[in-house]
Amino acid sequence: MDALRCTDLTRAFRGKRAVDAVSLALQPGDIYGLVGRNGAGKSTLLKMIAGYLAPTAGTVEVCGEALGPCQTSSRIGCLIEHPAVNPALTGVQNVTVRAIAQGLPDPKRAATEMVEAVGLGEAGRDRAKGYSLGMKQRLGLALALVGRPDVLLLDEPFNGLDPEGVRLVRRLLTSAAEERGTAIVISSHVLDQLERTVTRYGVIRAGRLVAEMTAAEVEEACADYLCVETADAPRALTVLEQACPEACFTVMPDDAIRVTGAVEAEEVGRLLLEAGVPVSGLYVHARDIEDYFVELMGGTGAVRGTRGGENRG
Ligand SMILES: Nc1ncnc2c1ncn2[C@@H]1O[C@H](COP(=O)(O)OP(=O)(O)OP(=O)(O)O)[C@@H](O)[C@H]1O
């Protein structure tokens, strides 16, 4: 059974679709990285799943249970925008309130353990009103995680965290997914952190889910490759395929040859030189994850906005 299933989820603001017929399904243990430019619709999508915002159309199911519009579920833990923290209570007390609401058998203990797990330590006994940005973020994560939800929705979970905090949160999420089968959706612009955490990606562009891929597919697409530019691609291909049966060769539309696999640039250059094939360019092409996603997200033009005036909810 899917841990989370959204079907044709749509939300319009003043007639303009911020999220447009998004369907996605997460299995238990999936960590799904949601990427998109500012204003693409990521937070709106998460808010609809969390039950904070009514969809204009579409449905949400969590572990097979259909949720009505704006219906929250104890199976879902969220950190979306500012966590609901009572500044007059300590960190542990805040999480205890949430644990009681979740119906946990020993709420104080669950809260204390969770505050410890997110690295708040002694600060868990201080009132939340004195917390720094990173401490608030850790508290927000503790609130999302307490009660071991089946589905976790996190909007920019790495915001404000120091490097140690980032590493700790990554470990917490990975172990929740691997050990307890929690399905996690993370919306984030911090691609290198996503790259170390997620198992799948979804790219949202102008409200639509335009691409989905596994972490392995992204890794493969972003792998370095050797590029051979030659005026005689067919002959170069014949020479290289014969000499390097282990490598993989692709002729690109501009006739350049893309080489992946166990072969060095020096070796390719030598083989072509010996065969008398003219080579005009030979270089390693490094493509990073940022280039890859910027392209999928729709380039670097102006961000998209539907807000004329504020129209919350
Ligand atoms: N309450 C609202 N009223 C009107 N328009 C809204 C409202 N909430 C979001 N929008 C619009 O919906 C679109 C999607 O916004 P959303 O916050 O979901 O984007 P996002 O992908 O999370 O962006 P970011 O990466 O900047 O957080 C934007 O054009 C935004 O202006």
TrEMBL record:
Q: Which InterPro entries match?
A: AAA+_ATPase (IPR003593), ABC_transporter-like_ATP-bd (IPR003439), ABC_transporter-like_CS (IPR017871), P-loop_NTPase (IPR027417)
Q: Which UniProt keywords apply?
A: ATP-binding, Nucleotide-binding, Transport
Highest taxon, organism lineage: Bacteria
Species of origin = Adlercreutzia mucosicola
Sequence ranges assigned to domain ABC transporter in this UniProt record: 4-231
Q: Name one GO molecular function term.
A: ATP hydrolysis activity
* UniProt protein name: ATP-binding cassette domain-containing protein
Q: What is the similarity comment for this entry? A: Belongs to the ABC transporter superfamily.
User: According to its UniProt record, what is one Pfam family this protein matches?
Assistant: ABC_tran
